[in-house]
Amino acid sequence: MDYNFDNERPIYIQLVEMIRIDIVSGKFKKGQKLPSVRELALMMKVNPNTMQKALVELENEKLIYTERTNGKYVTEDKELIENAKKELAQEKVNNYLKSMQNIGINYDSAIRYLQELGGKNGIS
Amino acid sequence: MELVKCNNLCKEFDNKQILNNVNLTIPKGKIIGLLGKNGMGKTTLLKLINDLLTPTSGEVLINGEKPGINSKKIISYLPERTYLDKSMKISQILIFFEEFYEDFNKEKAIKLLKDLDLDINSKVSKMSKGMQEKLQLILVMSREAQLYILDEPLGGVDPATRDYILDTILSNFSEGASVIISTHLISDIERILDEVIFIDKGKIILTSSADELRTKENASIDEIFRRCFKC
Fold it and tell me: Would you kindly state where each structural domain of chain A is located, as residue ranges?
């Protein structure tokens, strides 16, 4: 997998975002044991310290937890993952509506465009 | 204790001040970018830490001691120019390193060379310049050192090789060790840095955590560097 970073934003925040997506999309499954910090850092080609910082942040969000001496796991809490997914969806919807607004398309038309054109791209 | 500490470090050549009152601390377990334009004192500072130069005044301490035999045991140094004897075969160089450095992990070096499809029976002189640079990096990163000092590891190599070099650094530095990387090619490397040090005209003008600096300035380290040193 290729991870692209935007050098203008803190790397650890981008890592939090990427791993959060990996969790809500099910790439990292509920209750799954995560690779070690060093392995994750190598996978994403970042500094292990930066990865550690990102994992602490995800732990604060309760999306992952540490089992003492045993490593880190994705939360078992389905609701928490659903909520994180909803938040992300909210953000994407806002971005969509905003960019449609920028080209002069109002809410109702934006929905119509979504129904008409979204399907054409094979996205259901 | 800090891994490296510079106290009021000054270096002059022919009455020209190359390093001017440098105070610096390198903690354990960090990847640090020493960033500055050419001729601003990066290599001089690294050579002082490596005991290849002596300070005009002030001091460098490695684990609390002046540089010497003990510091050379724990610092793995990649100089700007290769020092390998080109008439040697890779296999001979491996033996040389094994005998020279207690912490040299020969198996690791052989594995990394294999990944590159390098035949250890070939002579250095028969290898391309890029391959020689990779060989040198492999040798340096195959030591289980406490501090890796890499002077311009990205200079003069193509972008694909840069990725290889960054990967090799990231995957091979020992746990808990620190890495100092000097470069002016910031955008290629800033992703992996914990901390940055800006050096200009022999003075340290900024030290910061890379992510904090990005947050504060809302820009990449590369961009901040350019703003700082606009000609």
Answer: 11-76, 79-120
Q: ipTM higher than 0.85?
A: no
Chain A contacts of B190, Cβ < 8 Å?
7
- Write out pLDDT tens, residues B48-76: 999 999 999 999 999 999 999 999 999 99
Collect all residues with Cβ–Cβ distance below 8 Å to B146 and sequence separation of at least 6.
Answer: B3, B28, B63, B74, B75, B174, B176, B177, B178
Q: Which of A8, A42, A53 sits opposite B219 (nearest CB)?
A: A8
* Nearest C-alpha neighbor of A38 from the set B173, B178, B26, B189: B173
B25, A12, B141, B183: CA torsion to nearest 10: -60
Please report, in angstroms and rounded to a whole number, the separation of the first and last CA atoms in chain A.
24
pLDDT for B159 equals 85
Q: Can you give the residue ranges of every domain in chain B?
A: 4-82+145-228
Looking at domain A11-76, which of 3.20.20.70, 2.120.10.30, 1.10.10.10, 1.10.150.20 is its CATH number? Answer: 1.10.10.10
> Would you say B112 and B172 are in contact if contact means Cβ atoms under 8 Å apart?
yes
User: What residue type is assigned to position B187 of the chain?
Assistant: S
Residues in chain B within 8 Å Cβ distance of A47:
31, 170, 191-194
Q: Quick: pLDDT tens for B10-52.
A: 999 999 999 999 999 999 999 999 999 988 999 999 999 999 9
User: Which of A43, A47, A36 has its CA nearest to residue A18?
Assistant: A43
pLDDT band at residue A117 using 50, 70 and 90 as cut-offs: confident
Confidence of residue A124 (pLDDT cuts 50, 70, 90): low
Judge whether A42 is closer than 8 Å to chain B, CB to CB.
yes
Task: For chain B, say whether A50 makes contact (Cβ under 8 Å).
Answer: yes
Which chain B positions have a beta carbon within 8 Å of A17's beta carbon? none
B16's CB contacts (< 8 A; 6+ apart) are: none
B4-82+145-228: CATH topology is: Rossmann fold (3.40.50)
Q: How far is B122 from chain A (nearest CA, A)?
A: 30
